[in-house]
């Protein structure tokens, strides 16, 4: 399917006000101008770091975007996913959805080092991750948007929360709608955000059930994926989530769903005679609509903050508390 990349790149979501108060976020106000005086170069530093990372390995764009999703869905966008385990807690890195799966921690570390050199003890790891996710999408041909800033970093992390707060690749449509709804995200937000699967690779263990057991799958596509993913063994073998353009942020993901070529069971649930079918068709045929909705949904997801009263800080090292 031909995709107008110029349409994807030109979509910019502007936020009307410079400061927005988000409920449930410890009373924190996120602002588009939060670092204008305190660290005016932060966005260019993050962009340069992501440009270098994506140039070295395009897949890293998908990895950083995924890291942001997995962070925000567990107690808000607070960089808790970046914390290493300590004697006091077992963190999120070793949780089921993240272990041997979430990657790119060293990219955030490198960017944090550059930011600290420019503006010591000023920019949170959570804000760096939010900016890096935006730049990852844009550098791979997707839209850009105005990132609200002013997040702070968690002092702890929870493996149990990371295991329970994120929908898995075998989720039903009802589960997807409910779990995104629990975060204040609409079914339309959920369907747009699922378009992140236009990027990246997945391990055989996450889609084996889909390609061997699901009935609503294109036979040729199933056979193609079975070549690299046997019914037993080979759990770590990788396959692109988007069979058409795995390193480009475009709307091909939705065209794949219409053709029953979604890699995950949860992907195909978006187009399986259910409530999201019509929207999937719209996104498949309108790159600009998808890009605009994705950008807006990323702003909304990025506004998920820790509960009021949660202790936070600006970490100097993203892997550990100060």
Characterize this entry briefly:
It is found in: Secreted. The chain is mostly helical and 322 residues long.
End-to-end separation in angstroms reads 49 Å
CATH architecture of the largest domain: Orthogonal Bundle
Spatial shape: globular
Secondary-structure element string: HEEEHHHHEEHHHEHHEHHHHE
Supply the number of structural domains: 2
Radius of gyration: 19 Å
Structural class: mainly alpha
- Unreliable spans are 1-10, 13-27
Number of strands: 8
What does the largest sheet look like?
Answer: 2 strands, parallel
What is the CATH class name of the largest domain?
A: Mainly Alpha
Classify the beta-strand content into a percent band.
5-15%
CATH topology of the largest domain: Peroxidase, domain 1
Give the proportion of residues in helices: 40-55%
- Count the helices. How many? 14
* Largest sheet, spatial ordering of strands: 1-4
| Nearest-integer average pLDDT | 90
Binding site for heme b: 197
Protein name: Peroxidase
EC number: 1.11.1.7
GO molecular function, one term: heme binding
How are the SSEs placed, and which strands pair?
Elements: H1 5-10, E1 12-13, E2 19-21, E3 29-31, H2 42-56, H3 59-72, H4 105-118, H5 125-139, E4 144-145, E5 153-154, H6 159-164, H7 173-181, H8 187-193, E6 201-203, H9 204-213, H10 219-226, E7 238-240, H11 252-258, H12 265-268, H13 277-285, H14 287-302, E8 312-313
Parallel strand pairs: 1-4
Antiparallel strand pairs: 2-3, 5-8, 6-7
């Amino acid at each position: 399917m031909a995709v107008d990349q110029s349409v994807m790149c030109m979509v910019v979501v502007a936020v009307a006000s410079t400061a927005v108060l988000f409920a449930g976020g410890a009373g924190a106000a996120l602002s588009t101008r939060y670092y204008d005086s305190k660290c005016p170069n932060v966005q260019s530093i993050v962009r340069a770091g992501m440009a270098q990372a994506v140039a070295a390995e395009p897949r890293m764009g998908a990895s950083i975007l995924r890291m942001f999703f997995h962070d925000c869905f567990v107690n808000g966008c607070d960089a808790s996913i970046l914390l290493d385990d300590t004697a006091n807690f077992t963190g999120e890195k070793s949780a089921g959805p993240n272990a041997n799966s979430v990657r790119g921690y060293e990219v955030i570390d490198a960017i944090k080092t550059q930011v600290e050199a420019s503006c010591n003890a000023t920019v949170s790891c959570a804000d760096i991750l939010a900016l890096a996710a935006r730049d990852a999408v844009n550098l791979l041909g997707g839209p850009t948007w105005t990132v609200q800033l002013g997040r702070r970093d968690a002092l702890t992390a929870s493996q149990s929360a990371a295991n329970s707060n994120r929908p898995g690749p075998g989720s039903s449509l009802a589960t997807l709608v409910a779990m995104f709804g629990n975060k204040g995200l609409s079914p339309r937000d959920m369907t747009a955000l699922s378009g992140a699967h236009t990027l990246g690779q997945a391990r055989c263990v996450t889609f084996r059930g889909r390609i061997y057991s699901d009935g609503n799958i294109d036979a040729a596509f199933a056979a193609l994926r079975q070549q690299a993913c046997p019914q037993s063994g080979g759990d770590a073998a990788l396959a692109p989530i988007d069979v058409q353009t795995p390193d480009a942020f475009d709307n091909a993901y939705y065209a794949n769903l219409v053709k029953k070529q979604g890699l995950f069971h949860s992907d195909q649930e978006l187009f399986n005679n259910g409530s999201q079918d019509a929207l999937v068709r719209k996104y498949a045929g309108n790159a600009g609509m998808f890009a605009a909705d994705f950008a807006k949904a990323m702003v909304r997801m990025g506004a998920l903050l820790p509960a009021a009263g949660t202790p936070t800080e600006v970490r100097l090292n993203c892997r550990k508390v100060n």
